[in-house]
Write a structure and sequence with these properties.
The protein has a domain at 16-72. The longest helix has 28 residues, at 3-30. It is an all-alpha fold. The chain has helices spanning 3-30, 35-51, 56-75. The chain has three helices and no strands.
Amino acid sequence: MPPHILFVLTLLAAMGFTFAFTESYMANLRRKNDPINSATGACAAGFLAGVRSMSPWLYLYASNTYEIWDWQNVQSQQPLVVV
């Protein structure tokens, strides 16, 4: 297997672990099961994706983008009300 494919698979596995761990940790810490736990986990996983680029601006951008994407998935489980 080429080294770059192995690196990408390792990064994706680490992102999945980071998301699940952070989400569970926040749920236990806050003693609530709400979308904020998912958003925190998504932010941590996105931050890990940004670390690959070694750019602090991309750390923040990736974490916020992944958090917004996850927040939209959480919100899509509820009825959409457009005002």
